[in-house]
Amino acid sequence: MVSCDGVEPLGELVFVGLGLHDAMGISLRGLEETREADAVFIELYTSLMPGLSVLELEKLVGRGVFVVSRRDLEEEGGRMILEEAKEGKAVLLVPGDPLIATTHVDLRVRAEKQGIKTRLIHGASIVSAVVGLCGLQNYKFGRSVTIPFSEEGFASETPYQVILENKVMGLHTLCFQDIRAEESRCMTVREGLQALLGVERRKRGHVVTLDTLVVGIARAGSRDPVVKAGYVGEIMSYDFGSPPHTLVFPGRLHFMEAEALITLAGAPESIRERVE
Q1: Among 85, 90, 29, 32, which residue's Cα sits nearest to residue 65?
Q2: How far, in Å, CA of 69 to CA of 111, rounded?
């Protein structure tokens, strides 16, 4: 087989999704690909998998797994992975569904340009998991956004603006919470809402106020996910437990979406008044 630039492939790089919570989230196909690989790598900085033990994963796949850092993939361009892939079959294990993070798109492009064949083995994604957990309709989600940690006390206005733009179109907004694996920091629902309320105080656009409907989700993909819908003032003090946490700001609601939020996420009955 010839790659996109006409170069005969040297070896192979397979991106394997790990799913959302622990080693049991890997698919049977992903497990098979990993067991057959000549070298196996894993990155754990783009998302938090609270139930994952690298040691237990190694027992499951029956081989050693090398943990790569952000520096390895971003600053060094995944050089060590590409070198292994040139000689045989290398697997990169990725939390969630591979290539959701643009870092890995860059690595795949680098591989193809060097004549290395690439393939994807998909895994469960937070994008689809959130939809299933809260009952909102997938086709009504607009652009998603990450709420980053504040730098020097100043919160980014980008998430606020994205929520506003989606609301104007009646669309829901999925907000990822910032993760800094190197610092063992994971943004909580409360921290994300505090950042948005800080922007609201500056912008005064009535986009995210204490009366805004929001859904908080914790530990999607685990056996004990927490899903709670309510108004920001209430959700700020709700105990979601340990991360990872995710936020959803609903847009216009179909009556079935309102029913789902009330039944599945404990939303107040008053949201029925928002149905359009």
Answers
A1: 90
A2: 18
Entry pTM: 0.88
Question: CA–CA separation, 68 vs 12, rounded Å?
Answer: 18
User: Could you tell me whether strands 226-231 and 145-147 are parallel, antiparallel, or unpaired per DSSP bridges?
Assistant: unpaired
Strands (E), the chain: 12-17, 39-43, 66-68, 89-94, 117-121, 145-147, 173-177, 179-180, 185-186, 213-218, 226-231, 245-249
Question: 31, 109 in Cβ contact below 8 A?
Answer: no
147 beta partners: 177
> What span, in angstroms and rounded, lies between the C-alpha atoms of 137 and 131?
7
Residues 246 and 187 in one domain: yes
pLDDT average, residue stretch 188-206? 95
Domain membership flag for residue 254: yes
Q: Is residue 20 part of a domain?
A: yes
20, 36, 108 from 103: Cα distances, Å: 18, 25, 9
pLDDT in tens, 124-134: 999 999 999 99
Average pLDDT over residues 177-198: 90
The count of structural domains within the chain is 2
State yes or no: pLDDT of 74 exceeds 90: no
> What is the residue type of 258?
A
Domain range for 101 is 12-121
Alpha helices in 114-172 (DSSP H): 126-134, 158-168
Last residue of one domain, picked from the residues 71, 102, 121: 121
pLDDT of 6: 55
Q: Nearest CA to 228 among 262, 258, 259?
A: 262
Residue 274's pLDDT is what?
Answer: 83
* CATH code for the domain in which residue 205 is found: 3.30.950.10
